[in-house]
Amino acid sequence: MNKPEYEELLQKYKDRVQKEFGQSQVTSQPKITSREYEDFKRELYPARYTLYEKACNYAGSLLKVGVDQKTAEKLQKNLDVCHLNTTPSGVISLSIALPLLVIVIGSLISFAIFNMLFFVIFFLITGVLMIPALQKTPELMANTWRMKTSNQMVQSIFYLVTYMRHTPNLERAIEFAANHLEQPLSLDFRKIMWDVETQKYATIRDSANAYLDQWKEWDKEFVESFHLIESSLYEPSDERRLTLLDKALDVILNGTYENMLHYAHELKSPMTMLHMLGIILPILGLVILPLVVSFMAGGASPFTTAIYIAVLYNVSLPIGVYYLGKIILSKRPAGYGATDPSEKPGAQNLRNINIHLGKNSTLSINPIPFSIALFALTLFIGLIPLLMHSLNTSDISFNEKETLKLLDYVCPPEKGIGCAEQDKIGPYGIGASILSLVIIAGLGLSIGLYYSLRSKNVIQIREKTKSLEDEFASALFQLGNRLGDGIPAEIAFAKVAQNMENSTSGEFFNLAEKNMTKLGMGLEQALFDPNVGAVTIFPSKVIESSMKVLIESAKKGPRIAAQALLSMSRYIKEIHTVEERLKDLMSDIISSMKAQISFLTPAIAGIVIGITSMISTILTKLSAQLSAITSQNAAGSTGTGGFADMLNIFGIGIPTYHFQIVVGIYIIQITFILTILANGVENGADKLGERYALGKNIINSTLLYCFIATVVIILFNLFASTILTNTLPGVTP
After folding, report:
1. What pTM value is reported for the model?
2. What is the Cα–Cα distance from 481 to 559, expressed in whole angstroms?
């Protein structure tokens, strides 16, 4: 807070106190400052305009479109939720200006420069579809913000209840929760305290109730649980107070389960539509697409046709599937947030490749250079057929009849046989088709390795921490019983470590006990030392908050600490039970999506590529053979009408080389989108889990697709070669 703001606030308090109590009552003035206030001001309120905000504000300054009151209120509500610094008028202006810009510029370029009516229609349809999509963008962004926040609500109630059991102070409980929650809910809790300290609200309860108003429509269980926690402050006996706190946690746990139950039931229909429109139908369309292209005699060139297919499969379909997926995710109710250990200060190097050079020396390398180098190498290998043709390199044949070649550039039917080298199109060869798979393999492996290397170190730490969390309820129960017997913390930690030997919990307590006995640390330092603390080695919010509660409650005596730990043990068991029930609810949908990602989509696409290669080989060779027969008959002055008509029926077909690259990129895109969707449905806003799943799924799906496509291409081309040899053995292409 700068000096002018402080002076203004100070004068405001002086005037208010003078008015209510008189001049003689003014003895001192409080300094309005807090860490939560400063953090909130620094992290959120400085206007960090995003590209979307800038675009809305700029469009609003140009068009100044009026918005009806009902729409404006709805848009403003969504803008406030996700803290976007723009206006409803700016949103509507952008939804009109940007589509018009896309339609006009895209159509002019397509028609004037490339003379392609296809792209004129494409940009026209794209612009029209962008209008409602841009108008719904604030709603999608607000729902995404709500999803991230709601994933932390069970944890927030857990922290509040845990703290309130031993210290019935709502303000300190909210502060405790804010310190242990991740963004964005931690920012909301800090704002509750900030609004009190800046005198926007008179009490912490008024400020909290004002914040809860925005959640009445979205998460009634969270609001009810929070009100129960507030009501516990007014109970005359500890027994009734603790009963209300227990009820608060039960309400949000049961509410979370019921909401996820309804979501799981309602998810089947949109997921079926997503699979059919975005995955099954496009993949099945690939089967017939080569036939349609092959019989498009007199149409666009094969390369132009490949561009059309790429626009459809690599631009339109992925955007549509992603948009439908975001709508599905935006309706997901509250769940359980997962922590990312690499988000902690000083832990960002966990996302890099760490090479240990010595005891105290580690070389940390970002995985991006490795991914780029891998893709560059595979791209060079995949472009060899194009480079060889540009250098007029002699073709390589793989069989005596020369039906299977590396490059196999052919003359289009309208040019006839013996056309100039620059007029030939391709490559149609089996070798070029297989080399094109190297490009897709390199692209998939480079993307997958990037995400895998970025998450490998972190996911190992979190998995180890999760195993500790699974056992931690039992460990806390034992620790609480030991402390309840009046045993000092050092001895209690040692006994629990001994009882849980050869387990992750035993390792945790053994580490804390060694810090106290061998390094002479106190209990808090043994747990939270930034270098060797047990909580530092096992970064878990549940464990961290449990140990914080232990330290806070231990100040009031061992019995209070014992009761707090026993209560936390029960709560952790209940949360784990509900988590397992939620996994059971989502198992059918998640398993179907994972099967689609891991096997069905890449396998079907790989077979389609093999079929395309066979059709392309047969049609191109048959076209060349018919051209040769027609030329021979023309030289002998015999009738050629029948063969000429057949030439008009058959087109040259699209090269498998180009078609495979389009399909391969689509497989990587659809795997990427489905992985994000599956992780969001299962885990909510979990970026670490998303990175790990992307690394694993993209690598596996790409390699499976490339393997199946390679095998099917070779087998089907051998089959096609046999057919060609036996059908017209007297004619060589």
Report:
1. 0.74
2. 9
What are the structure tokens assigned to 427, written together? 């490559």
In the chain, domain spans: 47-135, 153-261, 268-343+381-455+584-727, 462-577
Neighbours of 27 (CB within 10 A): 6
Encode 626-661: b = buried (16+ Cβ within 10 Å), e = exposed: bbbbbeebeeeeeebeebeeebeebbbbbbbbbbbb
Query: What does the buried/exposed string (b/e) look like for 196-222 if buried means 16 or more CB atoms within 10 Å of the residue's CB?
Result: bbeeebeebbebbbebbeebeebbebb
CA–CA separation, 599 and 703 (whole Å)? 11
Classify residue 353 by burial, with Cβ atoms within 10 Å: 0-12, 13-18, 19+: middle
pLDDT digits (tens, 9 = 90+) for 662-690: 889 999 999 998 888 888 777 766 777 78
> Residue 365 gets which letter from DSSP?
E
If one counts every other C-beta atom within 10 angstroms of the C-beta of residue 497, the result is: 22
How many angstroms separate the first and last alpha carbons of the chain?
A: 83
Q: Which residues contact 122 (CB under 8 A, 6 or more apart)?
A: 106, 110, 311, 316
Q: Which amino acid is at 181?
A: L
Contact 612, 290 (CB under 8 A): yes
pLDDT band of 22, cuts 50, 70, 90: low
d(CA 673, CA 363): 33
Across the chain, what does the average pLDDT equal?
77
Length of the chain: 733
Amino acid at 104: V
Two tokens at 312?
Answer: 């459809």
Listed residue (190, 156, 146, 43) closest to 541, CA to CA: 156
**Cα(143)–Cα(148) distance, integer angstroms:** 9
CB 13 within 8 Å of CB 160: no
